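Supplementary Note 3. Input sequence used for the single-chain structure prediction.
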Amino acid sequence: MYDAWMYRRRLMKKRRNCGAARRLLCGLLLCGMALPWLAGTGLQAQATSQAAPKSAPTAESIREKEKEISQIKEQKEGLKDGLSDLQEIKKNLELQKDNLKNYVKELDANLEQIEARIADLLEQIDAKEGEIVEAQAQLEAARKREEDQQEAMTAHIRLTYESGDPSVADLLLGAGSLGEFLNRMDYMEKIVSSDVRMWEDYKAAKEYVALCKEGLELEKEILDETRESVEIEQKNLEELIEQKNRDIISYETDISNKENAIREYEAEIKAQEEEIRMLEAAVAEERRQLIESSGSAMTYDGGVFKFPLASYTRVSDDYGMRIHPTLGVEQFHNGVDFASASGTAIFAAYDGKVVAAAYNATMGNYVMIDHGDGLSTIYMHASALYVSKGDVVARGDTIAAVGSTGRSTGSHLHFSVRLNGSYVSPWAYLSL
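The predicted structure, written as discrete structure tokens, is reproduced below.
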């Protein structure tokens, strides 16, 4: 079994050195990140012995494997930190991308308004151009009427007062009386005065039309300038939208790169977890062999306890004096209560032999393990027991499942440590 484990170990190490490290490094370079452990440790675990040992497991061989497990766990934690950083970066990028998309939507709405303004201005300009054409025609007609009237009036005056037209003289001299003569003179003056007024009216009409045309041209000029200004605004807005769309594509590319790097991290973490699992299984087997070979003379070597649950959970009740949750009186609490979901795996804190696996009205389903030198651990209120009295267990073996049996107010693990017949604080032995 041990030779097979060493073979799998060497194969996994080669794959990690040749493949996973390169992929992870590419992911890190892609993200512009460099974790502290890259400079020193690399991605591979410490090398094990090249030749599989033929001798029986020893405490030294176990410590070497535990050291290697610890190193790989540190590397895994570094990867998890890097993964967390990447996930946070990706989250921020997605937020920025969403904000940018919303901004582009606002710009698109503004662009639609500008385009509508330009269309309206173009309609107004077309209408003004039509009015200007019409005013120009009216101006030409008024100018022609003015010129015609001026020519007719000039000719008439010249005929009347300069040429001495006999018909006019006869008209005046032919008067039978002074009154008739004056009447005829007044009539002639009225004719001339009427011609003058008509000419002045034509002249005023021409000037009015000219002013109207000038006003229309000024309005058109203003509209043209407004249109040009709005068109510049439209162009600038279109360029801004185009730039923001390029930024969105850049964000999406960056997010995709981060996702690829995240997958590389997750794959490497998964590979390291599998390697840790294999190493821990090998260590557990060696520990069991070592314990069985030692017979009844079990000795505690001073190692640190494994945390009895898969991960640290909330302490619902600590070691020491407390008010009992069901009895309501102050009482010494001989262990630590870890709140955890029912069915959660309970691990052996250290190597030892199961001296009890039974049910008690107070403790519920419980397991007691002897670790040697007067040191033992107790695991209470389990929903199920996976070991029996007399079983040899190694540090990290699954021995039971969390429950709420016996005198309990909720699903939890009560974990106690006894030394030479007395309860002591579990925190003196636990490793979180």
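The chain has three domains: 2-102+252-294, 125-249, 305-431. The radius of gyration is 52 Å.
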